[in-house]
Target: Putative Zn-dependent protease
Amino acid sequence: MIHLFRLSLAALVLACVSLPAAAVSLIRDAEIEHSLKQLARPVLSAAGMGPNRIRILVINASTLNAFVVDANHIFIHSGLIMRLQRPEALQAVIAHEVAHIANGHLTRRATNARSASRISAVGLALAAAAAAGGQGQAAVGLAAGTASSAQRAFFAHTRAEEASADQSALRYLVSAGIDPAAMLDILEIFRGQEALRPGRQDPYARSHPLSSDRVRAVKGYVAGAKGRTSTAPASAQYWYARMSAKLQGFLRNPRYVLRRDASKGNGEIAVLRRAIAYHKTPAPKKAINEVTRLVNMRPNDPFYHELRGQILLESRNYAAAVQSYRRALALAPRQALIEAELGRALLLEGSAANVKQALTILNRARARDPNNPRMLRDLALAHAKSGQNAMASVATAERFVVTGRFKDAELHAKRAAGALPRGSNGWLRAQDVLAAAKAAPRRR
Model:
């Protein structure tokens, strides 16, 4: 279920700079995150990292960029993903960012990261801190001082680091059997960017300086690797196509998507794009027909059941949405984002039995993904509807802390701590929020 959330990078970035917020939003979607994990797996293995070591998340921005801010998270802009033409190019981007982590290029940021350590006590993992802003598919701003020269000073790599990351990334690609020429796809996109004024450059060009020496070195490596790689396997192509289709369906104008797919036939990817476009139009009956076709094509695919649940939920068919989400969760029992949406559907259905079940499911989702503010908002509502007002304040405080609204978080945490038994789980969570609020960097 694709949703756009406010991303709070305050835990790290505001530790070193204090500037006006930039307007960027984070995309959370179980299918997209699964697709990225599938594409990253061979790269991480080649780099000697486990498949769960690094989390890759998508920022909703038309600009072309990818970056790392700690040793566990990679951000990629949706504009870059949709600009690329093949899965190997996206894997090359991932390999390059993994190389920055593996080669220790983040060491110089350690002091800044340490100042955020107390905030992480409540699960404010940098990449996952996000907040739902109001109703439905909220899209609001990035609460981080990442503007102008301070942004470049914090995120930018040196030319030496870039060359080092290129070489490591190329080795990872070849080791994984991925065409290293895909790295040239990326460099060609940004060729000429450095001649532009900073305000006209894509962020990638500012944070990843390009040079003719880098291009020559990559071309030389690619020439020497001929015959040692092959085209992307069908699985990589498939998950890349699904992720791209979902991003295009939700982020592009639905009428444009429908016009483009009018002659694309009834292939799975075209049907996926159409289902989303009809939903956004909105044309709920057509959307349901298309997503039902997807479910019939792949009855054991949790993400198609989840998408059907989203369309039904946002069409206010709550009981049917609950059934679709239940099926999705049965097929993917550890997907916290699906758990959270099932909890939301149960809440909206509204019966006492479903509210009780929603509370259990949302608490389980929180244990797996504590930084999902949409879930925290629903969890607070489930506690309130169950007569547990102090626990509702705890969940609300946690939602505010991941948003970077530390004063509001402190207010709700104090209210909860005063009403809960000392030493209880809720009281301890409230203490974590208070510690986070106290340690949070204050804007000047």
